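Usage

Read records sequentially. Each one opens with the input sequence:
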Amino acid sequence: MPEHVNHVELRNSLKDKLRRYDILAFDLFKKTGNNWAIVTVAEPDNGKKFLSQYGARGLQPLLLGFIALHCKVSNKKPDPLKVVTLLQKEEGIRSRRVQQPTTGASQPIFPFQMLMTGVWSYDRQGRLIFDQKYRDLRVGSITFGRHALVIYLETATAHGFDWHGRIDVPYAILEHTISFVEDAHRGSITLTLKSPPKIYQIVGTDDLHLYTGKQATASAYALPMLASLNLGGASNSRRIAKLERLCSLQTHYDKCPALCMVYKLVLPRASINQVWVFLKDFSVPEVHCRKNALSTFTSAIETELNSLETALSRSGLHFAEKFQVLALVFEGTLTPRVMRELIGSIEASSRTHGSKFTALAVRNLGRQIPTPGPYVDSADFQITSLRKALVDNVRNAQKAELTYTTIHGKRKQQEHLALTYKATVTPTGKSQCLTHYCDYAC
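and closes with the structure output:
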């Protein structure tokens, strides 16, 4: 093998291939500069099966990138202590697999009946309400992986969807989860996110059985084997992408992924408890779960955002204040409808206290406003509470400026310096940024 290859590269290359022969744990010795490596496995029979496929007389060569590796049985006996350690590791891995709850398939996959996205709101009694902004009528399944859950959406030509969809939700962006009772036969689970998930269109259909848990068709096994053959045509160095990144699930609802941080899945009542096993670590207090779901529909999120943008364009706010207003909206802190009601107070503060202190006050709201939930007081989201918080933030900003001036004294403005704003532009927010700030493009 190449001398420059290190043990990490080789381990990553061998891991999946060894797993096909029930080799769940192995030891690898490879030093950079050596053209050989030693792989130790727990069960000799599994190693022989691997060599029958990739050995000197095997059916196919073992490739590391585009380089063929030569495999054979080592002439040295393995370290007994190392073999015992590998056996214990494999036994631990198998025991964890048995304890993991599944649906009978190789992975925990659960079907759902409908997907909705929206925002949280409160009614007059202070109860939490799911304000639906988008409904996807396709059925699908939810798969729980090690680091993320995957939402799969089947194609539905009758509803205008001629493609398969996939949504990746890392567990790291889950704010909280809640389970609800929809009716006698259905329940629902809501996922409140900290940031937008990744949305894909599944281009290849050979791997759809991995999302549904169904048995793969014969073509799903045959096509990859044919694709791996080099028949003298174009080179295989250019891999065909199986996923295509999307900005939205539907063209007319292109703002939903950026502004709607609540995903609601409607499932059969029988599978709610099984799904909840994987999500209970992110749950709100159990006393708030398994209650009747309260839902509403006020208006489309695109309409609310357009109304906010119109109000901002007609207001006398400066760029710094508009920037902080839109930041709170696109970060999911406040909905466009609530922010629209707050524009008048922000504009009045700007005229009285100036743009600098008002922009700081709006920015600090992002650290003060909690994520909506059944345990959060609805009064925190009322306009009167938000206006009071805005006034308090302005006073605190003025006190901080006065303290700084007292300690350090006034400094003359440096004419050669400019204030810049840094932002991370994702595919979800790309179109909005290009639309709003096209005049400042380089």
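Summary fields computed downstream for this record:
- Confidence is low (pLDDT under 50) at residues 101-106, 218-239.
- The longest helix spans residues 383-408.
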